DNA sequence: CCGCATCCTGGGCGATACTG
DNA sequence: CAGTATCGCCCAGGATGCGG
């Protein structure tokens, strides 16, 4: 993010069949919990239950496990198991994960700036299309 | 909070219960076709069939309609119906849509820069976890 | 405390057929 | 051409219960 050498892609996607891997990133970021987990971990190291309690919206154990496992597989999160009783597992962002958190921050800023406009557009559209199943 | 950790993070989301509307954006960008539609429209005005043919992956009429309708509702796309026979409908990005395309560009650049690392992490993880159903 | 196994439901998505 | 209508599949994700 900080390095200033990125002049590879002139067009958005030079090859239509090649999406540079944005899909991989969006498939992760697009799911229900990954962003919240990344945001919470950007605040510091967290244990499993800490994560679960900190995340708004009542994430189930199953989904937290899946989410954090996939993030680990993608190299965004490091998982550390302490051989204690009872067991303790710490989660923290990797360098790559912090970089992704930076991207999320960028997206968050964009959203904050345009969210109101979006909501307004939606309201107008819904008013102009009384019965639509678009949701 | 953990001490000794670099405080680069300026609080991603000040209020945990407030996600600034990133969810709205990610719910759209996270679906299967929106990004590709936005990218194609960032190249210029397109008609319905043009869009369908230009997008790789064989998008169905139904999904193209749904995708483009939702983008219109969110104020990203302007839809213009010409009263001709046969009917002709043009789609183009709004100012807001172009702004979003810019964000997608940012995400695309990030992905291009880190995709290889991600793929490598996945390969290593999969190797270290021979039998896992995480995918 | 930290998970995994299992069952179940809702909605995203595709295929197909029909209309103006 | 540019949609609408219907059906059916698949899978993300919730609930629950067990195990180390």
UniProtKB/TrEMBL annotation, chains A, B:
Which parts form a coiled-coil structure per UniProt? none
UniProt xrefs under Pfam families: HxlR
GO MF assignments? DNA binding
User: Which keywords describe this protein according to UniProt?
Assistant: DNA-binding, Transcription, Transcription regulation
Q: What is this protein called?
A: DNA-binding HxlR family transcriptional regulator
Mind telling me which PANTHER family this protein's record contains?
TRANSCRIPTIONAL REGULATOR, MARR FAMILY (PTHR33204), TRANSCRIPTIONAL REGULATORY PROTEIN (PTHR33204:SF39)
* Ranges for domain HTH hxlR-type: 20-119
**Which PROSITE patterns does its entry note?**
HTH_HXLR
Q: Does the keyword tRNA processing apply?
A: no
